[in-house]
TrEMBL record:
Domain of life assignment: Bacteria
UniProt-listed CDD domains: NAT_SF
Pfam families to which the protein is assigned, alphabetical: Acetyltransf_1
Annotated GO biological process: acetoin catabolic process
InterPro entries: AcuA (IPR024699), Acyl_CoA_acyltransferase (IPR016181), GNAT_dom (IPR000182)
Gene: acuA
Domain N-acetyltransferase: 19-192
Lineage summary: Bacteria, Bacillati, Bacillota, Bacilli, Bacillales
Name listed for the protein in its UniProt record: Acetoin utilization protein AcuA
Species per Swiss-Prot/TrEMBL record: Paenibacillus nasutitermitis
Regions that span the bilayer: none
Gene Ontology molecular function: any one: acetoin dehydrogenase (NAD+) activity
């Protein structure tokens, strides 16, 4: 599969300077930046910074980030499914996970999540891929946002729909374990029917459910 990576960048006025939304960012560029200390939802910032660099080094990996001068204040990751997850079972080269998305607390409400995701899909970069994301309520920052699980779910759905991702059914036990959890998917225009059918087989282990 061809992994198209076309660097995109846009600037957003912020206080007396500009934020830069850009990507996919090469690993060597990421290594020269620092991660904001509030970006600790998944790992400690230094460990997460290292993980972002490792993703950027992958052929299919891509990091879209927002930087305030030389500090990363938000990021989105794209990569193949973890080999321990069911989504890797089909061995699909055109199935890409939209994984972590995180914005530092003081930079929220600026629409940075949407801007980063839109940057990832710009210039038809992901039309050859099925891009999916798994939303689990236990990953959501309910405390700092003040939202309940349902309002947060609506917010995440709206964010993903901004790039054409839609809700897909699945019998995955983790997603089915709570009604707020969901699977959202975008099938690129150049994805062959054989890949769509393979993804359907991965989504449902119990054939009678689809």
């Amino acid at each position: 599969m061809e992994h198209r990576k076309i660097m995109q960048a846009q600037r957003l006025p912020y206080q007396n300077r500009e934020l830069v939304i850009e990507g996919p960012i090469p690993a060597d560029v990421l290594s020269r930046l620092t991660l904001h200390p509030d970006l600790d939802a998944f790992r400690r910032p230094k460990e997460q910074h290292k993980a972002l660099i490792e993703i950027a080094e992958l052929a299919e990996g891509r990091i879209i980030a927002v930087r305030d001068e030389e500090t990363i204040v938000g990021y989105v990751t794209f990569h193949y499914p973890d080999e321990l997850e069911r989504w890797s079972e089909g061995g699909m080269e055109d199935l890409i996970e939209l994984g972590a998305i995180e914005v530092a607390n003081s930079y929220r409400s600026l629409g940075l999540g949407r801007r980063m995701i839109e940057t990832a899909f710009a210039e038809e970069q992901l039309e050859t891929a099925i891009v999916y994301t798994t939303e689990y309520y236990w990953h959501w920052d309910l405390e700092n946002t003040g939202l309940n699980v349902w309002d947060y779910r609506v917010m995440m759905e709206k964010l993903m729909k901004s790039v054409g991702m839609v809700w897909f059914a699945t019998d995955d036990p983790e997603i089915c374990s709570h009604p707020a959890n969901c699977l959202m998917v975008r099938i690129g225009r150049e994805v062959p029917l054989s890949s769509v059918e393979q993804f359907d087989r991965v989504r449902f282990r119990q054939r009678f459910m689809y």
